[in-house]
């Protein structure tokens, strides 16, 4: 695999760290700025909102530019957002800085996926995307725990300075390792880029992302009370258990990339079925500590097996605007984060018990499987129609002359 994928992974590591570290820093930030925890929680939402808005917007606006320069520029914006977070004097300025930090997130992964697949043979495209996402999953194993500890011992502002330093390392890696574009990125203009999103298969692929990863976040958003109230773990052990989720996610990401190069849709279906089964088994697995720990790793693995196939599928369905569609998939991922957490919260609020968000998530996984099935049926219909047209234009006349 090209060494340039390492530069993309370094950027993904920084982005993954800053996205998830806020969950661990909320008590420290709330205490320092004299906020209630729910108010401080809006800092998580501000970042997600930045991703949803920035992903398609920045991808569309930079479509005519060199992808190498776009990646470097996006990472520079990322560094600026995190540096401003570190020096934010109050809540409102920190809220704005977190929103700014989220803006380049989706576009970086979107453009990065196009660059990654463009550097490898067609039969290795999914694997190249999974290697870029490796930085995101490894962030959950190493980046987030280390950044959280840094914030707890040196102050939360030090964490954001540390993440800014990772961003600077990513900029240097991108400048050194990403090859110069032979030509400007092909584009049909902003209107043409947006027109690519009118495709039904593209929206079905995005819908699969929202439902499939919504299933993950329905359970993962409430994994701490599951582990403490149902499995009986002490709160001090939760950080180590969340690292197990990162290990599972990393393994699933690599496995999904390898399998998807052989069967894109088969890997997607298999991942969603596995995710639904793991979530359905959660209430049983949470009855003992060893099985609860196993379930956390299996959740990460089953969910992230689908990551590379979904990213690649969206890009293929919007071939005229792969950067925009790929970035929109990152926005869909963050919508899944918000929607899944909301649905899991409904199950808890209804009084169904601490593990109830998991079966609710299983329902979302089944919904994702249904959307993926509809997408497969639409593709089959298009293929049959295309084959019919090809046959019809190659029918010989009565004299035996073949017309084209």
From TrEMBL:
Keywords: Cell membrane, Membrane, Transmembrane, Transmembrane helix. The keyword 4Fe-4S does not apply. It is found in: Cell membrane. It comes from Streptomyces collinus (strain DSM 40733 / Tue 365). It holds the Pfam family MFS_1. One of its GO terms (molecular function) is transmembrane transporter activity. This is Transmembrane efflux protein. It is a multi-pass membrane protein. It comes from the Bacteria. Residues 4-380 form the Major facilitator superfamily (MFS) profile domain. SUPFAM superfamilies: MFS general substrate transporter (SSF103473).
